[in-house]
Amino acid sequence: MKTYDILRRARRSLAQAKVRTVLTSLAIAVGAFTVTLALAAGEGGRQYTEEMMKTSGDAYSLTIYSKTAEVVDNSGLSEYGVIKESAQTNALNETDIEKIKSVDGVVNVATVYSVEPSYITRGEGFKKYVAPVNVKVDRTEMKLAAGSLEDNKIPLGGLVISEDYLSSLGFENAESAIGQSITINFPKITTDKSTSNESIDKIFKIVAVDHKTDATMYYQPAFSISNEDGKDIYSYQTGDEKNDKYYVLFAELKDGTNIKVAQKAIADKNYEVYSLQDTRETLLQMVNIAQWGMVAFGSLAILASIFGIINTQYISVLERTQQIGLMKALGSRKRYIARLFRYEAAWVGFLGGMAGTILALIAGFANPLISEMLDLESGVNLLVFNPLTSVSLIIIMIVIAISAGYFPSRKAAKLNPIEALRTE
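^ thats the sequence. predicted structure below, dont judge the formating
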């Protein structure tokens, strides 16, 4: 008997017991639905996490601090009038920069400059505004409403403004702001950290307009300038042409560098080193725990369906004892009888797997509703289905069903044809 003929006979046998077949398939469908939905949610959660990481920092950038000095006494209560020795943070200098640059994979070490503007304006005839000015050090991706940044870096003399500031500055939209000039006034800062009457105007050209998205972990509307411009302004404001004391450094790594290896190499040189990879791994671990928790729940439903298949197949063998005896009397071999029942189980697994997968895909149409309920921006999908994963899951359901039907098919194959034909 050909495989195709056995498949057709198995399908007809299942069709004759529709209710039993549907109920058994639904048990598998529940498990397949839960597992498919869990995998889709996990994939969506990972993609959303990766998107957040892009706007939260540069993946190939390390934040470096000097290790704090040891605390002599860090236990118990402090006695009144007695000053307790505390930890001291050592400043970094040019020597530290050279040591970090010597690490394999490090292509640049940037220092952080803080600048303090007096006001921001479009020039004569326009109002003056007060807003923060950030110095962009690394290649953190900025979500842009208009304009562009090569390699996520702001060019010398370039300026990125927040979309929140467009109307105040008199721009109709983000596109109309690109190429326009903005004047920022920076005062001279005295030794006691107060501002003096002396100041300088710096003119910048708007190269991009950024905006907040739900995937942005930390966002504050601001004007952003390049690190080179920040250094020049910092030198003017502080009067320090060569500042050799830094409290934080950013090491830029070559794309493709093993971040963990580079991080450890710098840490071994007695520095505190942090990377975006640390946060990413923590968030992805939380997503994976939630996903595999749902998969475990779905697996319990699949486990229960295995016993349902075994029970259904045994009942089918008992109901068709005479039919089996007749087939054997007409020359059907044991392996054909066994295959018939295994194929019936395969059909049940296929129908259940297909039903569960299709129901999960239908649930995927609820992505806009889920985004709305979680107050996420339009277009964010937290359920992302992988076709290969769905097909693999259906195949797994078929294999599980065939395995569950092994013992009933073995019993059918071993029936004595004479005894079977005597059965009323």
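The chain has a mean pLDDT of 82.
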